[in-house]
Amino acid sequence: MRFPTATGAEVRREVSRQLSELPQARARFWASVLVLSLGAAASMAVPLLLGRVVDVVLEGGSDILVIGLLVSLAAVVSASLNAAGFYILSTVAERAIANLREDMVDTALHLPTHQVEEAGSGDLLSRSTDDVAELSSSISEALPAVTSAVFVLVATAITLVGLDPYYLVVPLIAAPAYYLSFRQYLKSAPERYAKERASMAERATRVLESIQGLETLHAFRREAKAQERIGEASYRVVENGYAARRTMMVTQSQMAAIEAAMLIAGLVMSYLAVRNGQLTIGEVTGAMMIIIRIKRPMMGIIHTLDTVNSGYASLARIVGVVHNPPPRVPDSGAPQPSGEADLRDVNFAYDGGWAVRDITFHVAPGEKVALVGASGAGKSTVAALLAGLRVPDSGHVLIDATPVTTLSDSERVARLALVSQDVHVFSGTLREDMSVAKPGASDTELRAALDAVGADWFADLPDGLDTVVGSRGERLDPVQAQQLALARIFLMDPAIVVMDEATAEAGSAGAGELEHAARAITDGRSSVVIAHRLDQAADADLILVMDAGRIVERGTHEELLGLGGRYAKLWGAWSRGRV
């Protein structure tokens, strides 16, 4: 699945809501309309005054210098008013975009994790980066051009009719033709641009997945296949981009034909007006210059339609996330955290293929359960279901006798935490990074958490807890980063810890440190451990052996060895590998 794309009505409602929440937005909008109207009216004086030059020359007059000064003054006044109008309008638009961006980030941060997982992080990443940037670019580039064009066109029509009512023929010819051309364009272009943006999101997803799974791709020599999938997604971007641009080429051809018809009509009207003595040669010269100037705003609109449609497609994708935010889950009234978990007849499928089937087991308070099995057996899926990151297709996942999906954020944090080998170190001070787990924690608590997981490297940091870590500061190696993640869990103090190969770095020189840190987290609380090393499973209270999404064996280490089944074979192979 992907996040939805908002309909036109949903986009209008959201834009209206954003504008209504801006202080003085309505007053600023009408002020910009007034200023831009005056600017467009001042711009009409330029061709009329230039036409007056023709009459002055023909009459042998000497007012050309005065007319030149008036032309310059009209141009300066028009430019100044247009700039002021654009500024006022842009302040409203940019503030609305900023608020919309904040709303999207807030919505994204509160989306259910399973929804983000199912939709793909690449889709959300594309909307929160590419689409927001595209929308901002559209506002800054297209808004001035379109606004200017609209006001100039209105002022042009009024000026032409004011010169001679017969010139009404020109806008009467142009308006229906432009309307039909724009209607045809807008009928097909938005969908094509939406497809282009969606294909760009798909490409981002493919690239992101390949980068995140680079080691796996190398291990299974699937680099060529991943590159092929990225190439296919990129080619779809190209195809959809060509389709959108072909629509623009057709529209531009229609614009050229309409402009030719306008010029012909204008010349005919001008000839008749001069012959009948209704207008002077200078006045019809000014009128024809005004008609010729229609091309500029119309082409401005055409050239920005690409940007406008791309921006609208991005806006619809952003509103698709924002307009229907997930309701905040209220407290379910779950009992006090005890560390008890139940999976009952749980089934879950990815894209129609079963990932796990008939999963049933119980975790008693303080009990350690280990999941073992080959890669792809379904262990990580079970961990995700237990942590509430996935919703089972059938069956029940209960934490303290309460469905995990009904727990509020505060109830969930108090009860369980998932630790994986994929660790993120936030940019900022170490204190800020750790306080994510427990806001307001004292320095004593932070140091105690680091000491509990054996983070001896903390003593070597130049500024202690004030040391900047992450991409903009001290780079932590994988073992240190994992210890930091485990220290966060220590601060959270959940009743249940789900460890999805959280000590996968134990094969490195930091094996002992990570094992010590894992024991500090699991001792005294319930834990479900996906064991990539069988010695991690050997001391578990219950071992579940998985294969092809099912639990095929269960028992203690000694019981499973006595069965002589799959676990015994795995243990034997692993033991021989250590020798």
TrEMBL record:
Q: Which UniProt keywords apply?
A: ATP-binding, Membrane, Nucleotide-binding, Transmembrane, Transmembrane helix
Mark the transmembrane ranges. Answer: 29-52, 64-89, 142-160, 166-182, 255-274
What is its subcellular localisation?
Cell membrane
Q: Where is the ABC transmembrane type-1 domain?
A: 30-310
GO MF annotations in UniProt: ATP binding
Where is it mainly found? membrane
Transmembrane helix in keyword set: yes
Q: How does it sit in the membrane?
A: Multi-pass membrane protein
Q: Which PROSITE patterns does the UniProt record give? A: ABC_TM1F, ABC_TRANSPORTER_2
SMART domains to which the protein is assigned, alphabetical: AAA
Q: Which segments constitute the ABC transporter domain?
A: 341-573
Record-linked Pfam families = ABC_membrane, ABC_tran
Q: What is this protein called?
A: ABC transporter ATP-binding protein/permease
Please give the organism: Corynebacterium stercoris
